[in-house]
Design a protein that fits this description.
The complex is a heterodimer of chains A (181) and B (156). Chain A is α+β, with helices and mostly antiparallel strands and 181 residues long. Chain A has five helices and four strands. In chain A, 50% of the residues lie in helices and 13% in strands. Chain A has a four-stranded antiparallel beta sheet with strand order 1-2-4-3, covered by helices on one side. The longest helix of chain A is centred in the N-terminal third of the chain and has 27 residues. By secondary structure, chain B is of the alpha+beta class. Classes of the chains: A alpha+beta (181), B alpha+beta (156). Chains A and B meet through α1 and α2 of A and α1, α2 and α3 of B. Chain B: InterPro entries: NO_sig/Golgi_transp_ligand-bd, TRAPP_component, TRAPPC6/Trs33.
Amino acid sequence: MSRPTHRRPEYRKINKDLFVLTYGALVAQLCKDYEKDEDVNKYLDKMGYGIGTRLVEDFLARSCVGRCHSYSEITDIIAQVAFKMYLGITPSVTCNNSSRNEFSLILDKNPLVEFVEELPAGRSSLCYCNLLCGIIRGALEMVHLAADVTFLQDRLKGDSVTEIGITFLKKPEEKKYRRKK
Amino acid sequence: MADEALFLLLHNEMVSGVYKSAEQGEVENGRCITKLENMGFRVGQGLIERFTKDTARFKDELDIMKFICKDFWTTVFKKQIDNLRTNHQGIYVLQDNKFRLLTQMSAGKQYLEHASKYLAFTCGLIRGGLSNLGIKSIVTAEVSSMPACKFQGQKG
């Protein structure tokens, strides 16, 4: 079976549009179903978690990344490989604290909000892209890394950039293994 | 392409999310299907606008349906519709023998009754696309054997 070796650039764009538009329709529907912004945010995060737990397998199969030895390596891979692969952007990574377990992904271009002009009236604390936080959290949990992922800054809320904060949490099992040895 | 995985997973999560927050029963089932179909409608409208921005005007209804079967389906689902039938009086049947959103499910009878949940969004997608091309329609879908399915579009 032959496959076209290169697609017309419009096809790729429209493929991405499909995801972006579907996400927009989903958020719109959720805003209709839930009155409180926190509920919508929580729901998006939960959905993202479900997606992340499955997406990580697809990611590992496609990318063949090797084993990571530090949190900063993991965050770099999320930013430079995963985001590039699925959303076509490369956020920049900064480390927020000296114990090297808090990182920020700074997105200056966010394809998910391509068709969003502004948050609807009365929805000022809606985290439109909260799905991303859930996805990262779910994916990390599937590789046995607990993390807190939240939006620190959001362009839709008036900040200058969109910033996702990842805080790696200490695994409680670590201590157990050490004691056994 | 990697993008496909994202959309597939999002779609599956949407379906399970809509049904999780609903109770059992025929009425609820219908409401969930409507919700999903309406979401698909919005997406279909937007998508067809972006898609046909630079294409030539369509000659007639059949031309539009062929566009949906070939270009639209290829872009969204990476393959063309396998069979298009019409009675030339406003009813079109699009048959896809290996529908992308159903291939990940078991090909036997196990999930046949649940398959319609996964077709609702696409019905809306087609209806939205047609609506923005000037055709008001009702789109339904049926699955006789996984992963093949038929979408029936009726004008009016």
